[in-house]
Amino acid sequence: MSASTLDIKNYMEERRALIESALPQALQPVCRGAEQLFAAMEYSLMAGGKRLRPLLFLAALESIAARDESIRAEDYLPFACGIEMIHTYSLIHDDLPAMDDDDLRRGRPSCHKAFDEATAILAGDGLLTHSFAVMLSTPAAAERLLPAIRLVAEKAGIYGMVSGQVIDVAAEGQPLTLQQLQYIHSCKTGALLQAAVVAGGWLAGADAVMRDALMSYAGSFGLAFQIIDDILDIVADEQTLGKPIGSDAANNKTTYVTLLGLDGARAAAAAALADAQAALQSLGTRGELLAALADACLGAQLAACR
Ligand code: GRG
Fold it and tell me: How many angstroms is it from 95 CA to the middle of ligand 1?
């Protein structure tokens, strides 16, 4: 294993540990009479996801901050946690019977199975709403914090994930072109990844050129991530994935694999990963951490897609 591989693994482990210890604090104190709601929020939030979005957020923050020692990852954990809370809410709602109707998530019963449907809906609502209070508690200057939060609100909401989900649900059972599929996923999955990365940039003082590079990196990262997710839905097993496999086919969904075949989907994922790396070029050495993260997260998964 090369030195740089070792470094990125250490980086990811250390940042993940920070995120894991900060997350439960975001749901304190418990509101009297709403113990079941808090239990459901904590159940889903602490179920052991990969913490990809907060990791990307911290990596972008630290990359742009470069040698500015006044920017320490520890101080930005509230923002990182808020992003993970939004992601977790989206998974809870996505699993509901009215949406994907999945019984398993992150290796255990989905929220509405472990609790009940009303509690799961409200746990999602609670995580989403409270995420903004948590992000606003980040000790950063308002001129950096507010645009970052606004970006998250737009990309997680009606100008990103929520609209992507609506279009996806409406398209169920209908054949889609590659272009339509890419549009849906750029909203549904890519937008929150973009928000995480570019918000990290905003908070570290990235200028417009840097933010463009980060946006483009995260867009391509999201595309590769989604194509790999489609491939894994076919080639992985339920235990590795922590959720049912074959759910795309069962839901009659057009995927990158149905449109391109397995080999074509692998090639498209590799091309998107290369685009993500290329987008970082204008950042020079500031792009190295994000490039290594893309390789560690996506390159490794892609290699496992055999
Ligand atoms: C309900 C508004 C609303 C939106 C839901 C993100 C989403 C939109 C649905 C998730 C459906 C899905 C399985 C999409 C594929 C890509 C994806 C987002 C996978 C889950 O993200 P990971 O792999 O999960 O980062 P962990 O559990 O590791 O955090």
Answer: 10
